[in-house]
Amino acid sequence: MKFLVGVSICVFFAFSALIYWVDKIFDLVSQTRRYHIGRWDNREQWETAVVKRACRWIQHTPIVRLSDNSRYRLLDLLKGKYRNATIQSWQIAGLALGLIDYSKNKDLSYFPGDFAEKYISEEGEWRCTVNRVDYAMLAYVILKTTSDPKKIYPAMKKMVNVIEGNLCSDGMISYSQGNQSKYRYVDTLGMVCPFLTLYGRIYNCSQYIILAIEQIKKYHCHGFLHGTQLPCHAYNVENNLPVGIYGWGRGTAWYFIAVLDTWKELSESNQRNELKSYLYEAAQTYTKYQQNDGGFNTILQGGGQYDSSITAAMAYFFQSCSNIFSEKRYKDIAEKSISKLMTVTMKSGAVDVCQGDTHGLGIFSQIYDVMPFAQGLLLRALAINTEGTFDEAVY
C-alpha cells in the first residue's frame, strides 16, 4: 500500500512538473521570437520576409489558439481544447488567398500547386469533415484555383449543402447554428458570400449569387449603427436589435471582405454597382477610425488596443478602394497601415499583435499573437497595383 501511495505521489509531482515546464517553454518561445521585432532596414527586405513566412505557413500553418489560457496548456492539449479544425480552416484559407493574389501580381508561383490535393480526394470529395459554414472560405480558395471545376463538384456541392442546412426562414444564413437560430453573425458574410458567388458563376446556379447578395443587403439593413458603417457582431432576427458590440474590428473586416470579394466575383453590372456603393460608403467612413500611427484598434471607434488583423484587413480594403475609385487618399491610408504593420513584424516575417479568435458574442480574446489569416490579408494588400490603376491580375 505504501508503495502505491509513493508511486502515486511521484507520478503526481512528475506530471505537475511536466505541466509547469510546458508552460515555461511556451512562454520562452513566445518571448525569444519577439526579439528585435519591427527592426527593418527597408521595405523590400521586410516584404520578402513576410512572403517567405507565408510560404512556410501554407505548408505548416501555426495554430490559432482556441483558449486564452496561459497556464496548464498541456491539459488543454490533452482535452482537445487548444486547437480547433474549424478555426484553422479559415486561417489557411485567408493565408492562401494572400499567396494567390501575390503570385498573380508578381507573376511568380508562391501558391503550392498541390494545395487542393490536401483537402480533396481523387473522387472529388472532402478528405476532412466539413460540417460548418466556416469551411466555405477554404472551399472558395479551392474552387478559385482549380483547373477542373467538374472534378471537385461533389466537394463544392457538399459545402453548399452545409450552408443550406443553416439557411433560416428569413433568408439569412446562421453561423452553423442550424436553420432555427435567431442570431445572424457578421462573420458569416465574409465566409460564405464570396464562395456562393463564385459557385453560382462557375456552375451556372444564379440562385446562389442572389443568396450571397441578399446576405450582404439584409445585414446592411439590420446590422449597422445608422450613419456609421459600423456593423454589430450579430443581431437578433426576432426584434432586429443588435447583440454584441458595434465596431468590433475584425467583425467589420468580415463585412467588407464579403462585399469586396463578392464584388470581384460578379459579372452583372447592376449587382456590382450596388455593392460598389457599399464599398464607397464604407471607405468614406472608415478613414476617420485610423489611429495616428496608422493602425486600427479592436474597437474601431475607440477603446480596445491595437490589432494587426484589422489593420491588415484595412490595408487590403483601402488599397482595393484606391484602385476601384481612383482616389489617392485611400492608397495613403493603406500605406500608412502597412508602415504600422512593419513595426510589429518579427524577424521571421510573421506579423504579430493579432487578436485571437472570439469565444462568443461579446467574449473577445485577450491573446495577441500571430494569425495566418492576417498575414494573408497583408499579402493581398501588397499584391494590389500600387500605381492606383485597375489591375486585372487582381480583379
Protein model, in words:
The protein is built from 13 helices and six strands. It is mostly helical. The chain has a single domain (33-383), classed as Glycosyltransferase. The strands form two sheets. Strands 1, 2, 3 and 4 form a four-stranded antiparallel beta sheet that branches. Strands 5-6 form a two-stranded antiparallel sheet. Helix 7 packs antiparallel against helix 8 (206-222). The termini are far apart.
The number of helical runs is 13
- SS strand fraction: 5-15%
Average predicted confidence as pLDDT: 89
Helix content: 40-55%
| Number of spatially distinct domains | 1
As for the CATH topology, it is Glycosyltransferase
Shape: globular
Radius of gyration based on Cα positions: 22 Å
Give a summary of the structure in a few sentences.
It is built from 13 helices and six strands. The protein has helices at 2-32, 43-59, 73-79, 85-106, 136-145, 153-164, 186-202, 206-222, 249-265, 269-286, 308-324, 328-342, 372-383; strands at residues 183-185, 224-225, 230-236, 241-246, 354-355, 368-369.
